[in-house]
Amino acid sequence: MSEIARRRRPNQLQVREARTSRPVDQRPNKRTSASASEPATPPAQTISPKTSPPIFNSRDSIIKAFEMKNVPRASIEILLASLSKATYKQWWQFCVLSKEDFYKPTRNRLLRFLTYSSQNNASYATLNTYRSAISLLSLEKIGEDLMISRLFKGIEKIKPPRPKYNFTWDVSIVLNYLRSLERSIELKLRTLRSLSFPDLTYKAVMLIILCTAHRAQTLANIKLSNIKSTEKSLEIRIPDTIKTTGRTRYQQLLYLPKYPHDESLCVATVIEYYINVTKDLRSSEKLFISTVKPYKEIGSQTISRWIKQVLCKIGIDVSLFSGHSTRHAATSHAFEIQQYSKYQVFTKFYNRLILPENNSFALAILES
C-alpha cells in the first residue's frame, strides 16, 4: 500500500474516537438513563391483564396477616366480613411487582403504593380506603403517620374531588329507542314477541335501571324469589349486601309500576314477559342470565357492558359515559320533570318510604 493511501485511511482507533466524540452529557447510557427516569413505583403498564402474578387468595392471606398480629381466630372471622377483597388484591399485585412484603407494610411502602395508585387515577376516596385497609396489616399505626396524612393533603390539592359528569345525556333518546325495538311483521303491531332474546334482555335492563336509578350491582342481585307482583306494580326486594347497604340505612324496595299509557315502556310487563321466556332456559334463581348458551347467571360487569352497548347503538359517546351514567341521567331527568329531589330529601332524613308516592320516580321517567 502506498504512503499516500496509508495516510488517507484512518486507523480503527481514530474511527472509534470520532464516533464517540459527542459531549459526555449526550452519550447514550442505558444504565444511567434508565435509573434517571425510573419511577419510585412500578409503571402503570406492568399491572395489566397480560401480567400473571402469583394467585392471590384473599381470605387465607388476610387470615395469615391477622394471625401474625395475634388476633383471636374467632374475631378474625368477623373482621373478614368488614374488609374489601379487591383492596387487598391491589396491594398484593403492587407487592408482587415491586417485590415488597405483603404482610409487613411500612410507612414508605404505603407511601409508594398510594403514590402509584394516585398516578393511575385512583380517586381520593379509593386511596383513603386503601390506607385504612392496609393499616390493619401493619404492626404500627402507619395510617396515622404524619407523612401519610400530608400525602393525602397534597392529593386533595392536586386532584380535588369533583363530580364525574358535569352534564349527561337525555333519557328520552333511550326511551324512544326502546319503543322502536318492538316491531311485529304481522299486522304491524308492537309486541314483545317480536324481540330477539338479546334485545328483550337489553330492554328489561335499561327500563329497570332508568326507572330505579340503581347500580348494575343491584340488578345483578335480583332473585326471582324476591319479586312480588301486585295490582299496580312489581315489588323487588334486595336482601343481599350491596354498595348502598348500611348499618343505619334500610334497603329500599324497588317499585316497578305497571304503565298502561304506553305498554312498550311498561317495565313490569317487560320483566314478567322476560321471566316467562327464560323459565325453561335458566338454571339460576337470579333474574338476569346470559344471552347465549349455556344461559348462566351474570354479574354487574356484564350488565354494565349491556348498558354501554345500548348507549352506543343510539349514538351516545361511551368513551365519555360509562354504564353507571344511567344513574345521573335518570335522577337529573326526574328532577327536571317533577322536582323529585324534595321527595328524596324527605325519605333520606326520615328513613321511610311514602307509600302513596312509591311509583313517583319511575313515572317521572316514563312520562317524559
From TrEMBL:
Residues of the Tyr recombinase domain: 174-368
Extent of Basic and acidic residues compositional bias: 16-28
Xref: InterPro entries: DNA_brk_join_enz, Integrase-like_cat_sf, Integrase_catalytic, Integrase_recombinase_N
Keyword terms, alphabetized: DNA recombination, DNA-binding
Domain of life: Eukaryota
Low complexity composition-biased segments: 32-46
Lineage: Eukaryota, Metazoa, Ecdysozoa, Arthropoda, Hexapoda
Keyword Transferase: no
Molecular function terms, GO-annotated: DNA binding
Protein's organism: Trichomalopsis sarcophagae
Swiss-Prot/TrEMBL GO biological process terms: DNA integration; DNA recombination
SUPFAM superfamilies: DNA breaking-rejoining enzymes (SSF56349)
Keyword presence, DNA-binding: yes
Chain intervals with Basic residues compositional bias: 1-10
Residue numbers spanned by region Disordered: 1-55
Protein name per Swiss-Prot or TrEMBL: Tyr recombinase domain-containing protein
